[in-house]
Structure formats: structure tokens, C-alpha cells
Amino acid sequence: MDSLQNLLKTADDTTQVNLLRTLGIKSRFIDKEQAVAYGLQSLEKSKEIGFKVGEAKALYSLGLTHGMTDSYANSLEYLNKCLVVANQNKDYSMVCDVYNSMGIVYKRIGDYPSSQESYLKSLKVIDSFNLQINAASVYINLGVLHDLMDEREEAIASYQKALEIYDGPDPEAMKNDVEVNLAIMSYTDGDYQTALDKFLKIVPYWRQEGNNIKLYDLYSNIGHCYLQLEQWNNAEEYLFKALDLANQLSLEQGKAFVYHNLASLMLNQSKLKEAIGYSKQNLDVLQGMEGTFERKREAHQKAYEIYEASGQLKKAIFHLNRAQEYKDSLMNEAKVKEIQNLQVRHEVYVKDREIEANTLELALLNTRVEQNRKRTLYLIVISILLLFSASLLYFRYLAKKRSNAILSEKNRLISEQRDTIGQMNRQLEKRMLRAQMNPHFIFNSLGSIQHLISTNDKKGALTYLSKFSKLLRQVLESSVNISLVLSEEIELLKIYVELEALRFDHSFSYQFEIDENLDIDAHEVPMLLVQPYIENAIIHGLMPKEGNKELKVSFTDKGDNIECVIEDNGVGLTQTEARKSNRISRGMSITERRIQALKQHSAQQLVKIENLSDKNRSGTRVTILIPKE
Q: If both were cysteines, with which of 124, 142, 147, 354 could 155 make a disulfide (CB 3.0 to 4.6 Å apart)?
């Protein structure tokens, strides 16, 4: 152990995985919790580096560790996981070992049909892949199972088969395994002296090998044989040896078995005080174990006999009643085991189907490889065609970009000539219609520019033209987009309002208010959706009014929507005038269609027009809800 831990300090990757697993195996006979911890570390490291062989071996080792320490549910869980990985790795030798180990676990929990089925599956894998080196141990385990099912002839035949086919490196170990099982058969038949002689003959070999698991089984069986032969001192010696190993290996059922025999031993010698102590220890160990109703019934029956012999009749009656209760519970335990067996058999059936699927996958592997090769070839051809098409589109885009640059330069030169203003009006009208702006505004703006030039107001003409061109440039640059970032939309609206104010000699004032909680760079809105409403407010609300004229535009965050409010203190609109205005305005009719399209994103009323005209004030307020999504 010390040498392995020293090597672990400098090991990495697969070496580290193997060392951790080996430490777990060596720790089984010392500390179960430490053994499990090493096994889990080996498993996690295998997954981390993608070492599938190490992963399978770690799962198998954990399954054996739990099985050797009576944690049968955990043992089956890890063995089933190992079975999946072993099949994926096509490691059929390990598949054989897993089925063999599952047969042992099922045998220990009393599910003999499932145990036999697992052994037969192991033999089937052995025959399919010619893995004879694993067959002998399976036949031994199958012989043990036949013995437990009172099929003596089949058991002896299985043991003989194991000896015949074994060609491994340690024939003596195999022979001893067979002798142990034959001794158990004699033991079961009540021939305790024959069984004892065989057990004692085998002890030196496993003591030399240092296999404490097998030594525990031998010591407990030898102690029980001496107990039946009424050789009290020898029985006590070997039972204490078995108890010491059971404590080392955390074998709870093993400890209970030894305590029960020690209680019987002391009762037979009329050492009632010691018998009571061992009986209590037996009951304490069994108390923390699920199931085992038969063991508990036997423990209470023994306690009853001890207390009756000691004259403690009240306690004797208590344990007699408890023994009867556990006897009644055996029927329920049998039903529970039957349900568990059905569940386990279903899982085994699923695993068998997985093995069959893997076998079929091997048969179809060449076909799949060929199909994959063809698919790869098709993908390469398609990729080349797509790349060629993309190149053509890219070069067309570059040519179009160069053409657009030349056209932009010509437009700039044309705009400097007075005699080409009419042509520019037509081109701008088409662009603004595409951008969904009112073409009357463009004509009026260009007319205003022409008037300023004619009257030789160069400063006014240049100012107006500069702002107008800035607006058109942003609109044209964004006209290919359906939507626009809110910050850019607000900037367009500001330029538009500023231009209208300049066109109307600053006859009205205006202000824009932006909610500080609204992230204007995070949301997109339909381009120039709000502009027609601002135009209506200026043209139809403010311009007909005498006196102070004010326009207010605000944007506010309203959860799932952005709220835009356009408010003016103009002449106001009656419902009839509002309908008429909306009907004759092309910009508003386009906007109405765009609002209808937005309604699929929200169930709320998106546009609300309010007439603010009363005794104290006049004007109009338009509220627009723009969904963020």
C-alpha cells in the first residue's frame, strides 16, 4: 500500500487510473470506505482523460467491492454500468466477468433464477468468443447454485467440468475452490466431520495467499462444524478468528453469523451471561440491516432460548413474540423479493438487447463506413459548389458596391447644379417613398432651398441644405433595413424636426425626452414609424395655430414595450377631422399598415390618439406602443 501511494504522487493519466484502482482493490480487506473512495477517484480520472478501458475496470472494481461488503444494490448498479461500457469497448472478456459477478450477487440475495440466467449468459459469451480461460470459475459458481437449489448431481457435474477445462496459471487455487464447495455439500448433508476435514485441509493455502475473504468463509464454517461436533474450545477459537476478519472487512452479515454461533456455543456450555451478550450483539448488527427476516427470526429465537434457560421469562416471552412476528414477515419479504426479481430481470433483458444490438452493429459496420464515405464525398462536392456560388455573389457585391460609389459621386455633382434640381426631386421622391416618408415634405424642402438660392440667401440655403442632406443620407443609408436601433431612429427624428423648424422659420419650439431607464442602444424599432405622427402634429396641429407653438416627443421604457408620446398644443382634432386626416395622408395609411403588422407581437392597443382641447388648453396627444420583441 505504501509503495503504491508513493508511485501515485508522480503518476499521471492512465498510470494514475490504474494505481487508484489497485489501491481500491488492496483496501477492500482493510477499509471499505477507503476502497470505495479510491475506486471513485479512478472512475472520475478515467472519464476526465477519456480512458474507456480504465472506466470499465473502475466500475467493475466498485461493483465487486460493494458485493464483498454486502451492499448488493450498489454492487448491481455498478456492474450494470460496467456492462454498458464493456460492450461499447467490445471487451467481451469483461462482459463475461460482469455476468459471472452478477450471478454471485443474485445468488447472495436469494434470486436463484436470475443468478442461473446470469451464469448462462456468461457461458454464452465465452462460447461465442472462445474465452475458455474464464469458463472454470463460472462452472464453479454454477455448481454452488445447483447445490443451493438441492440439485446435487448437477452441482457435482459443474465442479468436475470446472476442473476439466481449467488451464490457468494456478490449478491449486481452482482445486481448493472445488474442495470448498464439496465440503459445503457435506456440511449441508450434516456430515460435519467430513466437511471439517476438507475445510481444515484448505486453510493453509488461502492463509499463504493472504485472501481474507476466503479465510473468513473457512473459519466461520470450521467454527460451525466444531460447534455441531460439540468441540467447544475449537469452535470458539475459529469463530473468534472469523469475527476478527468480519470486522476487518466490514462484513455485517458475517459478523451476525458469528455472533449467532457464539451465542449458541455459550448456551450449550451454560455460560448464560456470555450467551446473552453475544445474542444482543447479533440483534444489534441485524437491526441496521434491511430485510434478512429469516436471520432476525433465528436471532430472536436464540435469544428466547437463552433467556428461558436463564429464568428471565419476561424477556424470553418478548423475544419469542418477536420471532413469531418475523416469521409472519417472511411471507411479505418473499413478495418483495419477487417484485425486485422482476425488476432486475427486466434490466437484464434490456442489457441482452444491447448486446444483440452491438452484435448487429458489428455486422453492419462496413456498410455504414461506406455510406459515411459517400456522404463525406457529397458534402465536399456541395461545399465546393457553395464556395463557388459565394465567391460569385461576393464579386457581384463588390461590383455593385463600386457602381454605387460612382453613382453617389455623380449625385453629389448633380446636386451642385441649379438646372438639375428637378431631376434630383424625382430621384429623392422615389427614395423617400421607399423609406416611407411624405414626398410633399421633400418637394417643399427642395422648393425652400431653391427659393433661398434664388434670393441669394446663401447662409440660409447652406444651413438648410446641410441639415436636409444629413437627414437624407441617414435615411438612404438605412433604407434597406426594416428596423433601426432606437438611438439612430431618435437621431433621425431630431434632424427631421429641426429641419421642419428651420423650414417654418422657427415658428414652433420642440423638445425630446428620453427615459433614463431606457437603453436606446439595446432595442430596434421599425424605421420612421413615428415620423408621420410628428409630421401631422406640426402640419395639422401647430401650423394653423396663432401664438405659442410647442411640440414634445418622449420615449419611455414600459416593460415589454417602448412608449412614444407625441404631444402638441395646436388646434386639436375632432374625431371627424382625425378620420379625414388619416384617410387622405399617404404617410399615415402606410403607417397604419405597419402598425397592423406590429399587432402580431402584442395583444395591446398600439396607437391611441387623444384630443386635448378643453377650456384651459388645446392640442393632441398620440401614444404609440412599440413591442421590444
A: 147
98, 61 in Cβ contact below 8 A? Answer: no
Quote the CA–CA distance of 317 and 319 in Å, as a whole number. 6
Residue 72: exposure state from Cβ atoms within 10 A (0-12, 13-18, ≥19): middle
Give strand pairing partners of 626.
Answer: 562
Give the integer Cα–Cα distance in Å for 61 and 48: 18
Reduce the secondary structure of 376-425 to three states and give it as a string.
Answer: HHHHHHHHHHHHHHHHHHHHHHHHHHHHHHHHHHHHHHHHCCHHHHHHHH
* Cell numbers placing 440: 410633399
439: nearest Cα among 475, 470, 408, 412: 475
Supply the DSSP string of 57-93, one letter for each residue.
HHHHHHHHHHHHTT-HHHHHHHHHHHHHHHHHHT-HH
Q: What is the pLDDT of residues 527-556, one digit of tens each?
A: 778 888 998 899 888 999 888 999 999 999
Strands 550-558 and 509-514 come out as parallel
* Structure confidence at residue 434 (pLDDT): 43
Q: Which of 534, 620, 530, 532 is nearest to 574 (CA)?
A: 620
Residue 610 β-bridge partners: 621
Cell numbers linked to 162 = 470446472
This prediction's pTM = 0.43
What number is the average pLDDT over the span 558-585?
Answer: 72
What CA–CA distance (Å, rounded) separates 251 from 385?
Answer: 70
Q: Which residue has the cell 465440503?
A: 183
**Which secondary-structure segment (H or E) carries 567?**
strand 561-568
CA 468 from centroid of its chain's CA atoms:
58
* Number of CB atoms found within 10 A of residue 71's CB: 20
SS3 content of the chain, % helix, strand, coil (to 5): 75, 5, 20
Q: Which residues pair with 563 in a beta bridge?
A: 556, 625
For residues 568 and 538, what is the distance between their CA atoms, to the nearest angstrom?
Answer: 8
H/E element, 337:
helix 313-363
* Burial zone of 518 (CB within 10 Å; 0-12 exposed, 13-18 middle, 19+ buried): middle
Residue 496 grid cell? 427631421
In sequence order, what DSSP letters do the residues of 271-314 get, joined into one string? -HHHHHHHHHHHHHHHHTSSS-HHHHHHHHHHHHHHHHHTT-HH
Of 248, 311, 317, 255, give the one whose Cα is nearest residue 284: 255
Q: Report how far residue 113's alpha carbon sits from residue 145's, in angstroms, rounded to the nearest whole number.
A: 10
Cβ-based burial of 554 (10 A; exposed 0-12, middle 13-18, buried ≥19): middle
Give the contacts of 203 (CB within 8 A, at least 6 positions apart).
215, 218, 219, 222
The CA–CA distances, whole Å, from 165 to 11, 96, 157, 375, 384 equal: 39, 16, 12, 49, 62
Residue 72 is placed in which grid cell?
A: 448488493
3-state secondary structure 123-144: HHHHHHHCCHHHHHHHHHHHHH
Q: Is the distance from CB of 565 to CB of 623 less than 8 angstroms? A: yes
| Euclidean distance between CA atoms 526 and 599, whole angstroms | 13
Read off the amino acid at residue 535: E
| Residues 305 and 315: beta-carbon distance below 8 Å | no
Q: How big is the chain by its Cα radius of gyration, in Å? A: 47
User: Which range is least confidently modeled, 96-105, 158-167, 351-360, 454-463?
Assistant: 351-360
CB 58 within 8 A of CB 22: no
